[in-house]
Amino acid sequence: MRIFVTGGSGQVGSTVVDMLLERGDAVMSVDNFATGRRDNLRSHLNLKQIEDSIVDGALVDRLFGEFKPDVVVHTAASYKDPDDWETDALVNAVGTANIAKACKTHKVGRLIYFQTALCYGTKPVQQPIRLDHPINPANSSYAISKTAGEHYVQFSGVDWVTFRLANVIGPRNVSGPLPIFYGRLAKGQKCFVTPARRDFCYAGDLARVVVRAVEGKGGGTYHFSSGKDVAIKDLYDAVVRAMKLNAYPEPEMKPLGPDDAPSILLDPSRTFSDFGEIEFTPLDEIARRSVERWQEDGVVGGYTHLREARAEVRA
After folding, report:
1. Which of 25, 66, 194, 245 is most exposed, with the fewest beta carbons within 10 Å of its own?
2. Of residues 301 and 204, which shows the higher confidence score?
């Protein structure tokens, strides 16, 4: 197959690209490297990498016309700076509109999209959250713009799949608590944790389900989630164990901030029904693989939408 992947050097995109190349697919990747790591993808005979932005509608249309993809996996997203509403709107809304329209114009067989669980708001009224939960993205520029993008995908008339995501993490992760914990601990700096709970899922586990969607499985909206959440401190402790530190660095306990949610847990029952059994990688194994990669190649990013955590990263 011929697969077009946006954000192909990001965490999810590059993991999907690697799996597609292993299958023998031809892949075109586009990434502007705002957050993608150049060392996430190696050169390959069946891979063509484009450094540019999906905000350029004429470029997107030309690339689709030249490559003629069978399926598009659209992982590209702006999330680096929660105060940069303009870039969020351009990449997540306008960029997705460009991708969706090109899929329609060039008769792409399937468009696969990725949505944030924050589309349900930071105070969901269901626990776990079902697919019939009201959409309430007015909690961040990221959630608003990603939800607008999802609507363009649905509007396109193309056969589509949307994965609304739990917290996806792994060695290619550049946002959220995992790289922040490692980066600070590696420099001997203190970390803080809150009572928040999250469902941390390995990027490779998501990518395997995405490949099934590329093959034609499923259709419509899904939650990618293990259906279980753990305390943020559990992730912190997993990182400490993986780093094999001589002494346990006790984290500071802080209350939830006003922009944080106690738990955002998604109901994955439709995903399990349509895609079959998913073997979820244990948290300690995710931490071990991540720490090994970062000790070798360095950690980058540490982006977060939580203002207090952003202040800590900058300290």
Report:
1. 66
2. 204
DSSP E strands, the chain: 2-6, 26-31, 47-51, 71-74, 110-116, 160-165, 167-169, 192-193, 197-198, 200-202, 220-224, 230-231, 252-253
pLDDT over 90 at 86, yes or no: yes
d(CA 71, CA 303): 30
In angstroms, the CA 59 to CA 253 distance is 48
Q: Match 């909690």 to its residue by tokens.
A: 139
Phi-psi region of 80 (alpha: psi -120 to 50; beta: other; left: phi over 0): alpha
Helix (H, G, I), strand (E, B) or coil at 154: helix
Cis peptide before 179 (omega within 30 of 0): no
pLDDT in tens, 57-67: 999 999 999 99
- How far is residue 114's CA from residue 162's CA, in Å, rounded to a whole number? 6
Distance CA 70, CA 72 (A): 7
Q: Which helix (H) or strand (E) holds 6?
A: strand 2-6
pLDDT at 309: 54
Neighbours of 186 (CB within 10 A): 16
Round to whole Å and give the CA distance between 245 and 146: 39
Q: In the structure encoding, which two tokens stand for residue 290, read together?
A: 């991540």
CB 170 within 8 A of CB 228: no
**How does pLDDT run across 244-279, given as a tens digit for each residue?**
999 999 999 999 888 788 898 999 999 999 999 899
Alpha carbons 99 and 171: distance in angstroms, whole number: 28
Among the residue ranges 7-21, 63-77, 244-258, the one predicted with the least confidence is 244-258
